[in-house]
Amino acid sequence: MRFPRIAGGSALALSLLIASAGNVLAAPMVTVEAGAFSDFVAPDAGTSTPGSITFGLNGTAEVIAADAVLAPPADTVLASLAGGPPTCIQTTRDGGVITALAFVPTCTVRETVVFVADAFGPGENAYALGDRVIAPETLVLSNPGINALFATAADAGAELSLTFTVDTGTGLPFALDALVQLNGPVSMLGNGDVTVGPATLLAVNIDAAERAMLQQAADLGVDAAVEVHGAGSLDLSTGDITVDITLAITFAVPTAPTPTPTPTASPSPIGMSDTGTALGEQDQGSPLGFVVALLGFIGFIGFIGRRRAQGMTNG
Length: 315
Known about the structure:
By secondary structure, the chain is α+β, with helices and mostly antiparallel strands. The chain is built from five helices and 15 strands. The strands form two sheets. Strands 7, 8, 9, 10, 11, 12, 13, 14 and 15 form a nine-stranded antiparallel β-sheet that branches. Strands 1-5-6-4-3-2 form a six-stranded mixed β-sheet, with helices on one face. About 9% of the residues have low confidence.
């Protein structure tokens, strides 16, 4: 996949080309196209000449009716924004032809992020959010906030939800808000970075409390759900893109198993063998049985002795 180059300086390096694709219907349809557009030709009602505009990274030019309504300042600034910064444009289509354009303050796109090699040419890689958003690899590697959104989402194969805000008086963006959901086992790396599943969070994006939570999940060996939230600003006059990252971390603490009690044998009562033999039926191999047998034998010997003594007396 090859994307067109986007002009406009370092402030535009994010190159957020976002557009919500609208289906062409017979009745008028209103959608919001978000992001940079690659070309714009203004319509001319005086000469009945239609114009055109292209949304998206690999979109096709759409016709703008000659008498389309371009709400100020769209009628004067769209040409200067072509191939430049992202913006939000409310678009009305009728029969596949654009009949109205106007700036709106916010717009959102939610797509899976993928890494695209040679996006702009050999060695010029990028991270693409569907076919509507692109962040050059150089920006992702140099800006920790952008890295936490685009690189982690790409590594995890996760969706990135991106909302940005524009000044409707100029059509220029000044803020963005983003969200990525990561899930998986946690590993604490030696350089301070932390992995959640296949995604890597840079150490600079993790505060002390967040690190403690991640460490606990790693120690327990449980999967964690990490919500990566980015809130940022774009200063087109200086070229700065600043994104602050916060993490919301949750995980389930495993419960300790309940120990199974070990059964113990009840002692046999006196006069009862281990098998419950009655007192008069003792096991002769037991000590009690031996004593009973011995006493019986002694009694028998005494009886025989008395009988013999009586016989001798009688004789």
